[in-house]
Task: inverse folding
């Protein structure tokens, strides 16, 4: 019995012609499809390529586009340009997006953007790198749609205003359930899928939320104001998207009203957009901790090299700093070469212990599990933890080094250096991200270079310094 | 103008008494609240503590519980036991959960569990560590509810069966919209919030999905089978929760039907649970890459030390391995101490470059951006990227070392060693996670120890080996 997701294509009332059964692409099928498309490109068989991708869900097709090499991707875009599903565009990112856009002309992009939800339209325009092309596309869009999109661009990057849809449903609080249902049935231009409607006062301030299930389960003659949920999570239009995500998670929201500076309802954010933002944020954090700014596997080699080089250069600088510390003890190393052999152990154990504490701290800060309310208690805990593990590991390493080099004093020196360095590692692993967070610098991005520099320098200094005093 | 989320407590029809306006807890308010509660505990003022937490949303209260120290947490639980909101329990995790449960007695836990949705009830029972207490609670629950919960436990850990709710709505496909609405209005025992209903055939196989907005916008005399979405993402009951998350993201789902081995509808998963799982997974990945098994800041010091020790011990082993490599060149280091000074640079640059590639690969594997369809192309890319950055950084370091020690040959040797080690780092950074993934070992957990061991050993070996041949 397979655990494969059965994904069956839909046939909603408005496009019944797409009533085709097709299953979600399993990995093997996807791999075969990518290979077949590459073959069709090489053998220049456009008809077979078109046949291969017909009936593929736009989200799955986007994945296939991202797996193709650039040339095949552009060739396929050109083949599909007349029948391109607009929903494909917001599913693409990075290089794959750029390649597809480079093939389409301005009017085709404008047409696709017009048929998208506002949040998706804003995403697509935002992803178009050149501001000239962005403007050209905007100029081609009908004026009423254009005004809405341009308004979204007045909100700060990464704000709720950029994420929200304009296509929401609001009704006055004095309406009855029957009036609301009549309105929903008669009004042509409503969005297709919605989960909650908002209840507003005459100034268009949201005063309540009404999940559709409540409307369906209420008597038809009661007023909205009598049954609506007065609990509302109102998202200010300029709220940062990380905070928006936090609100959705915290209060298990499905959709939320977005309000402008005057508290008026101006948009709606739905949970499917939140899921996408969460995925991005998680990716950013993991990559940032490893010193990578961009994780798109489709960008060019030169671009990838550039996104990695800066971090490596910074680390070269800090590695040289650590070497300068070692150089101060050159004469001691000449006398006792065991110091050179053992010193990387002290530094690397400090680095590992510091990274552990740092990763926990960065995550706990992001999920608000560390706040000013408990920070001092957790710093104390981490310090004691690093002392405990420091003493245990130092004992093991001290005995091992003492036996290896038949030198008890050397064993004692490395043990002492390890206790010192692991304690420093524990403290810097928590204090560095806390400090950066207080300075409003993203701790995920900058913590690890500070922490490893500290543990390298202190590691070499403690071990070689103690050796110079007690051994040489 | 504040970007604070305004969170106003709700008053749904069934508990209008809680009709109180209260705002979402901003960080400063939360900090004050935690301090005030700790003070109330110290001065033994139960009434003021109760007043402080009245009207706090259960999700916010859970955060406050997690920020309190253990003693205050237990004291507060005891104060609130008679009025405890059952929704608090599924919002808690780790030590905070354990502390609260330790105060409550079996019948209180059973009562709370009974009033929760099935997925939350399963979570709470699952989090109860002792299987005896778990059984005691189960035995106290009414038999019909108990059977449902026990059935959920027959599904594998981390499977869709454990996440799903039993409280979904299914209607036959021959019903009209009017019949469906009548049913929704008249049936007493439906769940409160739902977003889609499922359409089933006589064998209870799901044949379509109906978003509530479609029901509200359709004519009342049409049949469900004529308007339902035939597109369905059916989740097999034993599907792993990571795959479930992937499906929700991929197809922008709000809820999905869960089907058993025979394809019959047995449950429903909603997107708010997906959001929680995503958060967990992101946390697990970040912590795993840093070698931490458990990120709960509330567990005891001994427990934290234990969750970190294993990884540090493994790394001590690999650090010693690297030292053994250095020891092979002890005589060379005695002759040229510059080798000892420079060798950590070669190893550490390899480690950093390898970690960059590894983080990108682990993420791309998790989000299915690397699959067998494009893996070979990306391995080739990473190798070339690491050569480019290797050559650039080697040139910088070679010149620097040549000048520092006034030794051109030393500069050439360290440059050559860096090119070799960065190329090895790039390759191992992608091949190790790909290989582990193929062996079905989580690449996030085990990659970094392999990668850093390889880059340490090759770093020392290449630099000291080349030096031994060309310099000494």
Result:
């Amino acid at each position: 019995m397979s655990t494969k997701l059965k994904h069956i294509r839909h046939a909603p009332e408005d496009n019944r012609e797409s009533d085709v059964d097709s299953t979600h692409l399993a990995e093997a099928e996807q791999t075969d499809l990518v290979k077949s498309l590459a073959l069709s490109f090489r053998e220049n068989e456009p008809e077979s390529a078109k046949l291969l991708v017909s009936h593929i869900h736009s989200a799955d097709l986007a994945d296939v586009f991202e797996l193709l090499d650039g040339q095949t991707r552009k060739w396929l875009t050109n083949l599909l340009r007349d029948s391109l599903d607009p929903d494909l565009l917001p599913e693409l990112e990075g290089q794959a997006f750029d390649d597809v856009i480079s093939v389409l002309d301005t009017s085709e992009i404008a047409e696709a953007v017009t048929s998208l939800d506002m949040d998706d339209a804003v995403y697509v325009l935002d992803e178009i790198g050149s501001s000239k092309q962005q403007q050209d596309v905007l100029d081609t869009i009908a004026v009423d749609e254009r005004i809405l999109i341009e308004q979204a661009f007045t909100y700060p990057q990464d704000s709720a205003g950029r994420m929200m849809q304009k296509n929401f449903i609001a009704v006055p609080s004095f309406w009855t359930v029957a009036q609301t249902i009549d309105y929903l049935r008669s009004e042509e231009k409503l969005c297709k899928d919605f989960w909650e409607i908002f209840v507003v006062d005459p100034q268009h301030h949201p005063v309540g939320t009404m999940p559709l299930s409540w409307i369906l389960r209420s008597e038809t003659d009661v007023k909205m104001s009598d049954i609506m949920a007065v609990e509302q999570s109102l998202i200010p239009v300029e709220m940062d998207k990380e905070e928006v995500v936090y609100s959705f998670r915290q209060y298990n929201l499905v959709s939320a009203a977005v309000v402008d500076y005057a508290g008026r309802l101006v948009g709606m954010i739905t949970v499917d957009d939140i899921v996408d933002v969460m995925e991005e944020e998680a990716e950013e954090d993991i990559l940032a901790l490893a010193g990578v700014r961009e994780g798109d596997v489709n960008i060019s080699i030169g671009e990838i090299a550039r996104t990695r080089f800066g971090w490596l250069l910074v680390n070269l600088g800090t590695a040289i700093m650590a070497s300068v510390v070692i150089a101060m003890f050159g004469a001691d190393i000449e006398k006792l070469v065991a110091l050179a052999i053992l010193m990387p152990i002290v530094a690397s154990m400090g680095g590992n212990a510091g990274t552990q504490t740092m990763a926990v701290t960065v995550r706990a800060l992001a999920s608000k599990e560390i706040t000013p309310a408990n920070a001092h208690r957790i710093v104390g805990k981490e310090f004691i933890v690093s002392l405990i593990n420091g003493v245990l590991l130092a004992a093991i390493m001290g005995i091992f080094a003492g036996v290896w080099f038949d030198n008890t004093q050397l064993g004692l020196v490395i043990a002492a250096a390890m206790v010192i360095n692991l304690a420093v590692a524990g403290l810097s692993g928590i204090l560095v991200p806390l400090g950066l967070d207080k300075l409003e610098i993203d701790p995920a991005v900058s913590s690890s270079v500070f922490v490893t520099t500290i543990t390298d320098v202190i590691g070499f200094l403690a071990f070689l310094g103690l050796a110079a005093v007690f051994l040489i």
Observations:
- Confidence is low (pLDDT under 50) at residues 1-23 of chain A.
- The domain at 301-470 of chain A is CATH 1.10.357.20 (Tetracycline Repressor; domain 2).
- The first strand of chain A starts at residue 6 and ends at 8.
- Chain A touches chain B through 153 residues (CB under 8 Å).
